[in-house]
Amino acid sequence: MFALVDCNNFYVSCERVFNPALRGRPVVVLSNNDGCFIARSEEAKSIGLAMGAPAFKSRELLKKHKVVVHSANFPLYGDMSSRVMSTLAELAPELEIYSIDEAFLDMSGFKRYDLDLYARSMRKTVMQHTGIPVCVGIAPTKTLAKVANRLAKKNPGYKGVCLLNTDKELLAALAITPVEEIWGIGRQWSKFLHAQNLHTALDFARASPAMIRKHLHITGARVQAELNGKSCLSLEMVRPAKQSICTSRSFGRSVTAFDELHQAVATFAGKCAIKLRKEGSAASLLTLFICTSPFNDPEKKYWGTRTLSLHHQTQDSISIIRAAGVVLESIFRAGYEYKKAGVIVSGLIPAGVSPAILPLFPQELPLPDDRQKKLMTVMDSINQRYGSGSIQLAAENSAGWKPHQNLLSSRYTTAWKDIIKVKG
DNA sequence: TCTGGGGTCCTAGGACCC
DNA sequence: TCTGGGGTCCTAGGACCC
Questions:
Q1: What pLDDT score was predicted for residue A349?
Q2: Nearest-10 crossing angle of helices A115-130, A74-89
Q3: Is the CB of A243 within 7 Å of strand C?
Q4: What does CATH list as the number for A167-227?
Q5: CATH 3.30.1490.100 occupies which residues in chain A?
Q6: Which of A19, A208, A226, A279 has the fewest beta carbons under 10 Å from its own?
Q7: DSSP readout, A298-315?
Q8: Strand B: which positions are within 7 A of a protein CB?
């Protein structure tokens, strides 16, 4: 048996832990640049604020219902997430951290327990330790645990826990789950399935496996098997090393000057290098993209992207920033209003494999030497001690393009100066 | 005026090998 | 007029997730 523990309206719940006045009121959290809704309290959902909808289109509604609006505070949410996860880790022998607000737990060793009762005690413990409300779904496969969790969330009668164990319970649950709500079935596949007259999870589970295999490939066939109680997806306790790392942002205003765009690109490249060192990986490829708003008229639209081989594996900020600058020169077109850019590093290998793989041909970009490696270590430890961004390279600068974050709460759990601010 | 960010997996097709 | 068989690797594009 698998349990899926999923935090309720997670980002809103994080804000409420430190600001209890928000309880019972409609609250939303916006994406970066204060663009779209990415979390909504139950009250905000019932007003009709849609997930992913742009906030400026709902300005009237927000005002009318006195909705509390917050900018995304990812340092806070990340820290609260690790508190929830470490609490869960004490409640089950094995867990997989699936996302910032969800974890799968292995319940196979709990056969002699009353699972429903145990799940309720887990909920209570997480609330007590972190202040975050969660729902628990328990079933024989991960996909069915997702189904159970959805029912626990939707139906107040379950009081936060839904256990699907008998065939009767499972069939009843599948019959009231629309195909588009199944984990692994997105928009395109839902459209296809409805066209095949398959509308519920039960219809999908009973559809011809050959037809599903043909049109939805191996991925869809697995989902179908999981719905029929055949477990195909196991608990992944160790997160595999990342294959790519991306840092991208929309700008607070449009950027036209090369130098300003270069500052943004250098900042993103620097962040990728930091993420690489944290991950313990080194990159051999760098992709840069720059673009105008996708909502522009066609003649004002531009999407530029290019991938560069770094000729060696590196996690060095200076090398990566320099490479990003080289690519920017080749894809920059004057006269456009840029709204977003991003750096992706890929071709990742574990850092420090020795001997290092050296380039066959003399490289355009100089190899970082030992002094440079030491410099990175020193920079990382300064930023660790005094807060990220305390020290950076001169090319990194966010003065011109930084995203809007006008409604930000304090970093209550990760920054001393924010804690002092709260106290004052 | 204003529309997010960060990932993974799978498949098909092209280029290459002997 | 006729022109093999069996592979691997890489990439782009499309699907999905939170």
A1: 86
A2: 140
A3: no
A4: 1.10.150.20
A5: 244-386
A6: A208
A7: GGG--EEEEEEEEEEEE-
A8: 1-11
A243 CB less than 7 Å from any atom of strand B: yes
CATH 3.30.1490.100 fits A244-386, yes or no: yes
- Residue A108: CB less than 7 A from any atom in strand C: no
Closest alpha carbon to C1' of B5, residue? A248
Q: What is the mean pLDDT of each run of 10 residues along chain A (424 residues)?
A: 97 97 97 96 96 94 96 96 97 95 95 94 98 98 98 97 97 98 96 96 96 93 96 92 93 96 96 95 92 89 88 90 93 94 91 62 63 94 92 94 94 84 58
**Residue A246, CB, less than 7 Å from strand B?**
yes
Q: What pLDDT does A355 receive?
A: 47
Q: Beta carbon of A146 within 7 Å of strand C?
A: yes
Helix H or strand E segment including A138: strand A134-139
CA dist., res. A279 & res. A315, Å (int)? 10
Pick the CATH number of A2-163 from 3.50.50.60, 3.30.70.270, 3.60.15.10, 3.10.290.10: 3.30.70.270
